[in-house]
Amino acid sequence: MKDLFGYARVIAIGDIHGMYEKLTALMEKISFDPEEDLLVFLGDYIDRGPDSVSCLQYVYDLQHRNPDSVICLLGNHEVMLSSYLIEKRGIYNTLIGDYSESWLENGGFQTLQQLKETDAKKREELLAWVTDLPVKYQYQEFFFCHAGVDPDVPLSVQNEYDMLWRRRKWWEQYKGAETIVTGHTPIQKIKKGTRSVKPLFLSNRVIMCDTGAYMAGGKLSGVDVLSRKVWQT
């Protein structure tokens, strides 16, 4: 059944991190219908896993085929990629900051090699797209961003750094009326020692969707934030 705004499902997908086979398997399970559903990718499409460029291409193509029903957000790994490209081109951007060395140390080296092997025109299309993605998206009472929020600041004036990088247990401190939907921090790092690898639905209106797709025993997860149904691979 569709909600008041016309969507049957509003599906958030956690950090993909180059896990192309898990991505395609998850999308098959979800059976995304662009006429009925809204799909929100929470960022970090690249690095750590083996197929970063394939993941970028898949998400890029999906959004370009369905621009009204697929939202792609910026993750901190895409910020590190942007910083690397800017540094190599001799430009400094104070908004992005300098994370170029951090990127290579956090999975970027393999991604860079894959990009070098990609057709030049396609590579430029992907890079122009992925480095210009939005940081946040709001739908009804649901606020989507990659990492988290400052619990002491209204959502309308959140800092981009917090939405892209924040950890610091903000999810324990949040008391707002909207539901925050994020990735970034794998639930394995929140509930250490747990055998359950499922998205977290916290009682203070926080949904955490990163289930460590690239980690040993980790999964890639999709969550319908309306019904709280979960799909995993």
From TrEMBL:
Pfam families: Metallophos. One of its GO terms (molecular function) is phosphatase activity. InterPro entries: Ap4A_hydrolase, Calcineurin-like_PHP, Metallo-depent_PP-like, Ser/Thr-sp_prot-phosphatase. One of its GO terms (cellular component) is cytoplasm. One of its GO terms (biological process) is RNA decapping. Gene3D superfamilies: 3.60.21.10. Residues 9-203 form the Calcineurin-like phosphoesterase domain. This is Serine/threonine protein phosphatase 1. It comes from Succiniclasticum ruminis DSM 9236. The lineage of its organism: Bacteria, Bacillati, Bacillota, Negativicutes, Acidaminococcales.
